[in-house]
């Protein structure tokens, strides 16, 4: 078997909390040996946000509604509809409303009042055009469009819409009428429908949060926390309640330095081409020197054949001695400069070759994170035995866990550099990125190798390697994290 190492991570948008739970401590650990400075000035991932409960968010939204209502002297329900239709941008609503109130209402699907339509008048009764039943006029209601229907039909209409998951988008029953039903109008017709009322209020709250650019539901399973930030960027948000970490802008797994649109394209491509890429998912390769079959059982890509002791790179099978800081090139893809003049089939093969190059490395680092998590568990067990035997305390060995957490953070960033590089245009900027990517990869593998051999690694040497790896990671993000 070959040696290898450390931590765990799932790349799906719903499964990222466990992979970050350990190395999140590295972000927050004020007692680590790495020097702490002002993160606003030095950390490219720094992000100010708050974790709020549903009650706190409701107060925040209601305060915004009240302020707009007072400023424009309009009803609270109307203010809420206007804000929701303008992504809760009070300044924009005020500007438009003061310039042209009628057009602002129409744009929010609230028509100015007009004479009643589609009704058959009698002295005290009207016929509802939906149920075709004669009712007393007191049982008729209408929205700003003045399309009148009986109370029972309104109630039935709202129940059907809400049970289909519709809330803020419920419109008038009249054909081709797009006027929206405000919240107070709906609730008035659901006075005796407790379950439907609660469902409606739940759906409307979700719609309000989703339409608010400064709010984001935590994607963690069964988590009710909502992240609030005025800084609307693709930055790393961490839920205090369920420990889920995600991108604030898109709500998916955190993906720096790759931006939201690119990572969606990449994940879609990986899903579409998964069958093509299946052949590269094997866990075994032959030693390039003695050709014995080797299984990768750790996260480190620095492999050592257990039979002939040959050191080589798992990715390119090259001699590990050539993977120094100057020659660490296996992360780069070499484009064929003459591919534009080749046949269509040749271009298709080249495109597939390029994709597989990046996909293999993306997938390899994902697997390395999982394998390194297993290594970390073994490390915990060994340290526990040492502590029980009186060979130091947990505090004495804490630096190893700090190193493992940092390794996971660095490798996770490195994994997401591959979609970034895949979609980059060739040129000096891509060359600089791939150079920094290669430097980071080299230092990560060095750190992984040292952690895997923690009992024989000098603490000072390990902490120095931690500092180098984190500086490589931070430098790359500062230069290429465009949010």
Give a description of the structure:
This protein is mainly alpha-helical. It folds into three domains: 17-22 and 258-480, Four Helix Bundle (Hemerythrin (Met), subunit A), CATH 1.20.120; 56-107; 120-194, Zinc/RING finger domain, C3HC4 (zinc finger) (Herpes Virus-1, 2-Layer Sandwich), CATH 3.30.40.10. The protein contains 16 helices and 14 strands. The chain has helices at residues 17-21, 24-28, 39-42, 54-72, 76-85, 90-99, 101-107, 151-163, 183-188, 194-211, 260-272, 344-388, 394-415, 417-422, 428-452, 459-480; strands spanning 50-52, 120-121, 125-127, 134-136, 140-142, 148-150, 215-217, 226-228, 236-238, 245-247, 284-286, 293-295, 302-304, 311-313. The strands form six sheets. The chain has a three-stranded antiparallel beta sheet. It has a three-stranded antiparallel beta sheet with strand order 2-3-4, with no helix packed on it. A hairpin with a 6-residue loop joins strand 13 and strand 14 (311-313). Helix 4 packs across helix 5 (76-85). The longest helix is centred in the last third of the chain and has 45 residues, at 344-388.
